[in-house]
Amino acid sequence: MSAVPTVREWLRERPFCLALSSGFFGFFAHAGLLSVLEEEGLLPARLAGSSAGALVAGAWASGVSSARMREELLALRREHFWDPAPGLGLLAGRLFRGRLEALLAATTFAECRAPVAISVFDVLSRRTCVVTEGALAPAIQASCTVPLLFHPVWSGGRPLLDGGIADRAGVRGLAPGERTLHHHLASRSPWRAKGAPSMDVPERDGLLALVVRGVPRVGPFRLEVGPQAFEIAYRGAREALGAKAHSGVVHVG
Prior knowledge:
Helix content is about 30%, strand content about 20%. It is of the alpha/beta class and about 250 residues long. Helix 2 (about 25-40) runs parallel beside helix 7.
């Protein structure tokens, strides 16, 4: 019987997709994971994500390094995106779009260094749509448009909201059986019921999920815990690389 590979060895065997879950302001934790992957030279061939996961996946795919991402996140203050305005949500989202466009190193999906699939929620059809082409910033913004916090993003005459509404795991853009490392943020938003199926770690052929325990939930009024979330996810991801990839889920921390 062959030895069970470590997560590091499993990732090095063949190209893999990196899928990043939603989790409110969970981009701090996702950036911590990506920092470890970059340091190890374990770079994804493709990415997918929703909400916070879409932001980090899209930014990295556009050419933004994890170091640049960390720098941007640690400098983030509420006034950088806080623009209340009348509408179907508290914030207009114009400041967020401007900051996002300034960060991205590519303007379209076609210009990205790796393919990326971003989940958004179409309000009219009440279903998740996966965006893989066109302008990058609007797709990321739509996927991060938390209901009632931001105004909907309109595209092609249709209102779009947070991709995590119906694809909390951020895996809708994966191909069946695709070899995938999935970073699952376990912190639960208060509007999700305890035990809700959307909070379950996804189970799919070819998918290896990483769950780092103890990552604090970050939000617009808890940005001060963002650096802690980054560091806990960073240390957890580094520990996970040495763990055995013998099941579909690796828990660390």
